[in-house]
Specification:
Rossmann fold, alpha/beta, 20% strand, three-stranded parallel sheet, single chain, Dihydrodipicolinate Reductase, domain 2, 2 domains
């Protein structure tokens, strides 16, 4: 479900390159996409309308749809006996819906009292594999994160808006040198309506999500809660600042991680090198570090700038990058889907 969206399209491409465990595949999307054709596993499939008949005889359903659509349709699919994996935020905070990151807590995929599994948000998935590898050896006690989030987290609308703004600001080398000039130019050409709370071209926005109590955003609180749930550390202090940046695809996370005992840079680097879904790029002397434009289209989490926090032998500083549509969404959906498929085939 959501086969024509940014995450859905990425998932179709990914499924086409991984092991074939899927059997018959059906695609669905919103009414405006019905009848569109999408390729997956050497088949050309027509996108169907989302309806109850779509789930007849199905073993599993993957939803990559807006939260409001998920809230209506995920329970309806589960009521028909279908195992549902939802990529939206609709059920991530429900205690009886496991939050599954396939590389970290795969056993939770079998624990589904309501027939529903939730996939974490893209900022959580971008960093949790690296954090889990370090927690395994040294026991995390606190995490402080600045999450630099790409425009594509807002789907196709976010991507289109960023490109439109870049076309506006690229037309003048004078913009960005006086307060308010970028905002005025973007509003004049594109209007005030935007998926973002301000101009993103030539700018960063210290906000992602909806307003919550005490000045936090919904994205910040969600990333903190999801990190605790996936790592099974309910009391772990996690503090997140979400920043929207003018990057099309690829989240970047500046992380200050504290552990229960001393942790050295060399041993931490080795643990990350050995983690199956992590790639270490960490040689500042030669300019080797991860950036979002260099990791887009890749499946792993990339880690660099590994440093001892000044005067803090129990803390490390890390810079983490990941493709938010792949590692931050589609890879996990495919991996959890494969876990479900293995379970079904073993019956």
């Amino acid at each position: 479900m959501g086969a024509t969206g940014a995450v859905g399209g990425t998932l179709l491409r990914l499924v086409s390159t991984r092991q074939d465990v899927w059997g018959e595949i059906r695609l669905a999307a919103s009414a405006r996409s019905v009848g569109a054709v999408r390729g997956v596993r050497d088949e050309e499939l027509e996108v169907q309308r989302l309806g109850d008949e779509l789930f007849a005889g199905a073993d599993a359903a993957i939803f990559a749809v807006p939260e409001a659509v998920a809230r209506e349709w995920v329970p309806r699919a589960a009521e028909q006996g279908v195992v549902v994996l939802d990529a939206s935020a609709a059920f991530r905070t429900d205690a009886d819906v496991p939050l599954v990151a396939a590389e970290v807590n795969p056993a939770q995929a079998r624990n589904r009292p309501r027939g529903i599994l939730a996939s974490p948000g893209s900022p959580t998935l971008a960093m949790v594999d690296a954090l889990a590898a370090l927690h395994h050896g040294w026991e995390l006690t606190a995490v402080l994160v600045t999450s630099c989030q790409a425009a594509s987290q807002g789907g196709r609308a976010g991507i289109d808006r960023l490109y439109d703004e870049l076309e506006v600001v690229a037309g003048s080398r004078d913009l960005g040198q006086q307060a308010g000039d970028v905002r005025a130019a973007v509003a004049d050409k594109l209007g005030e309506r935007s998926p973002f709370p301000g101009p993103l071209g030539l700018n960063v926005l210290p906000w992602a999500g909806d307003v919550r109590e005490e000045g936090w955003s919904s994205d910040e609180l969600a990333t903190a809660d999801e990190t605790r749930r996936v790592l099974a550390l309910p009391a772990l202090p996690v503090s997140v600042t979400a920043v929207r940046v003018p990057v099309v695809t690829g989240h970047s996370m500046s992380i200050h991680a504290t552990f229960s005992g001393r942790i050295g840079v060399a041993e931490a680097r080795q643990a990350l090198v050995e983690a199956p879904s992590v790639v270490v790029l960490d040689d500042p002397g030669t300019g080797e570090w991860p950036t979002p434009v260099d990791v887009v289209g890749a499946d792993p989490t990339f880690v660099g700038r590994i440093r001892q926090a000044a005067g803090q032998p129990q803390s490390l500083e890390l810079f983490v990058c990941a493709d938010n549509l792949r590692r931050g969404a589609a890879v996990n959906l495919a991996q959890v889907g494969e876990l479900i498929a293995q379970e079904v085939s073993a019956r």
